[in-house]
Every structure is written in C-alpha cells, then in structure tokens.
Write a structure and sequence with these properties.
Elements: H1 10-14, H2 19-26, H3 29-34, H4 38-48, E1 63-69, E2 77-84, E3 90-99, H5 100-120, E4 128-133, E5 140-146, E6 150-151, H6 157-171, E7 186-188, E8 191-193, H7 201-220, H8 224-242, E9 255-257, E10 266-269, E11 275-277, E12 283-285, H9 303-310, H10 322-329
Helix pairs in contact: 6-9
Length: 331
C-alpha cells in the first residue's frame, strides 16, 4: 500500500457494500487456500474481482481498482480490496467476513483487540478500520483493517520479541482499575474466552483454564484421569506458582496481551523484514502468559524467543519459578 495515506472513514468506505458484494469477493477464498496449483489460485482470484460490479459508496472520487480473495483462515472468508483515491493515491484494505453469532463475536473481539493493541504498538499490528454487520444480511459481519504486504515467514526472534515486550510495557497502567480481563469476549479459534474482570491474575487464569476444559469436554467427553489430575493442579500447583506474583513491592501489573502468538499469526513486512503480528485475541494478563506458546513445539518458536523477550522485559519475581510458570502457561 502507499505510505502516508490516511484511511477513509469506515462508514464512507462501506456504505452500500452489500453482503452479496462481499460474497463475490471472498467466495473463492477457501478454494484458493486449498489449491496447490498456481492456475487454480489465479482462477480463484479472478473470480473474486467480480465484486467491483456493485461498487460501494466511497469517498468522493474514489473507486475500487480490484478485489481479490486473499489469505488463509479456518474460521472466516478473507479478501484484499484495492482503492484509488481522488488524488490518485492507492490504498489497500484487508477484509474478513464471518457469519452467525460466533462469527460476530470473533470479529468483534478481533476489532476491539486490534484497536487497543495498535494504540500501544502502532507498528506492531495492521491499523484496524471498522467492524460491522451488513444491512442486507444481518447474519453476516465484517472486520476491515489496513492491508500490510507480508512475507509469511517467522520473523527474527530478536526483532519480534523487542516489539512484543515494548507493547506489553507501553500498556502497563492502562488496565481499567488495574483489573484482569477484557471489555468483550475474545476467541481462540472459534472458542470464546471468558474475559470478565477479576481483581487477581490467579482468579482470571483459573477461571479461563476451567472454562476451556469445559468446552473441550463438551466435544471430547470427560476423562477420569484428567479429572483426578485437575484437583491438585488447581488446589496446589496454581496457588504455589501464581499467588506469589501478587505479593509485596514486586507485585505484577496487568499488561495487554496479543493473546494468540504462534507462527501462523506473525510475519515480516515485505521489503523491510520488520515483524508484524495479527489476528489478536487480547486480554489484560501477566505478561509472561504471552510466552507460553514459545515452548510448544507445534508453534515453531522456542526457548531462544524467551531469552530474547527477557532482554527487554525482566522475569517476574520470584524468578526461580519462571520455567514452571511458563510450563503451566503453555497449557
């Protein structure tokens, strides 16, 4: 996208953009993701261009130059919109569309997350533009943000961890009344997080993990072995590791987390190799909770990332518990 161009007002951009238009834009996104041959991907992108048949009401003199299926998502349909403004400058947007109440919740959470995270890390995430529901189909919802040209590879750990730590530090002192949680539900995939406000980090962590376990049991069924292990875990392990974090002069303060850091949600800006993160599921938490994914092999990060992060954000006291905390945060 062209640098230094302001984003048109969301309502001006999207007014009159019906769900039929969006369906045309993103109808082939899923096939584009799954296609292995270049030809099929080109066909999918070409099919998406018919979205320009019904132009939305843009800022005066602006027009849609192209609309293409773009990106990959398990839960949403995605597209890139290229717009030419009246002064000749070009600007691009990234669009997500989801349906139903879960889809609405997912996109609401992402928009609210990105909006607040971007205020603490303007270069760390694409700028959010709008969230809404299509007037012509109340069951369809959208999220719009600035388009960033990305190289889908894992960024340099030193650069990424420096930006992540800075974002966490910039957010300290801004949690409402110093509480843990978030003002809307956010989602891990299609699983909602209970983000109701709590006074302590231990309370938020326990409630959240129990809620995810319930959601898992609803799908997979109960496990006697797991039930037996959970009792001492919640009654002994968690208090032993988390309660000391909130004692004395070294008491932790809530930080705003991205909430879903793994290799699929981070990349590099094309041309600069600077790191970028996206698809957030934010909440106010202990900053080290963000690092739990670093030790999980399937997320392709690793312990070196922990070392790089703590060069910028010191380990919480008691420091001798840091590896055990990281272990339970990885669950």
């Amino acid at each position: 996208m062209s640098g230094g161009v302001g984003l048109p007002a969301p309502k001006a951009l999207l007014k009159g953009f019906s769900v039929e238009d969006v369906d045309k834009v993103v109808k082939s996104s899923e096939s584009a993701v799954m296609a292995r041959g270049r030809c099929r991907q080109q066909q999918a992108a070409a099919a998406a261009r018919v979205a320009v048949d019904s132009k939305p009401e843009l800022p005066e003199g602006a027009r849609i130059a192209s609309a293409n299926a773009h990106g990959a998502s398990f839960w949403t349909q995605t597209a890139r919109l290229d717009v030419i403004l009246s002064d000749g400058n070009e600007i691009a947007y990234f669009l997500k569309v989801a349906k139903g109440e879960i889809g609405k919740g997912m996109l609401t959470g992402e928009y609210e997350s990105a909006k607040l995270l971007h205020s603490f890390s303007p270069n760390g995430l694409p700028k959010p533009v709008a969230f809404g529901t299509y007037a012509s189909e109340p069951n369809s919802h959208f999220y719009l943000c600035a388009f960033i040209d990305m190289a889908l590879r894992i960024p340099d750990p030193a650069k990424f961890c420096a930006i992540l730590a800075e974002m966490h530090q910039n957010s300290i002192g801004h949690s409402p009344e110093g509480k843990y949680g978030f003002h809307v539900s956010t989602y891990q995939g299609n699983m909602p997080q209970n983000n109701g406000w709590t006074d302590t980090w231990e309370e938020y962590y326990v409630r959240g993990l129990k809620d995810f376990i319930k959601q898992e049991q609803a799908v997979q069924g109960r496990s006697d072995e797991l039930e037996e292990l959970l009792v001492p875990f919640f009654e002994k392990v968690v208090p032993r590791l988390l309660r000391p974090l909130e004692w004395g002069e070294t008491k932790i303060k809530p930080c705003l987390l991205h909430g879903d850091i793994w290799y699929g949600n981070i990349a590099e800006r094309t041309g600069t190799d600077e790191p970028i993160m996206f698809d957030p599921a934010a909440f106010w938490a202990h900053n080290e909770y963000e690092l739990g994914s670093f030790r999980v092999p399937r997320y392709r990060l690793g312990r070196q990332w922990l070392k790089e992060y703590h060069k910028h954000f010191p380990v919480s006291e008691p420091q001798e518990d840091v590896d055990d905390r990281n272990l339970i945060y990885s669950m």
